[in-house]
Fold this protein.
Amino acid sequence: MIRHVVHFTWSDSADEARRAETVAALRRLPEQVPGPVAFTVAPDAGLVEGNAHTILVADFPDAGTFRGYATDPTHLAVIAEHVRPYLAARSAVQYEL
């Protein structure tokens, strides 16, 4: 099992409505792209100053399934339209469970 964790920090151009739209687009990915067995996207709870704004955590049965998801054209289109234009910083890690 591979877990994929991404922290997103949005730029100043991403107001609350934009952030909500981006979170909604990311949350639709499991319906559009095969592979994840678990998938969570959530805004930061705001408990600690300086945190990233949004997290995505997705579990995949194996590395090949993750790679298929990561390179899927629908996934890449969501990233291009809803994430990259509003991104200030991104950090990701994949690890075995």
About this structure: The two ends are 5 Å apart (CA to CA). The chain is about 35% helix and 35% strand. The longest strand covers residues 87-96. The chain has a mean pLDDT of 97.
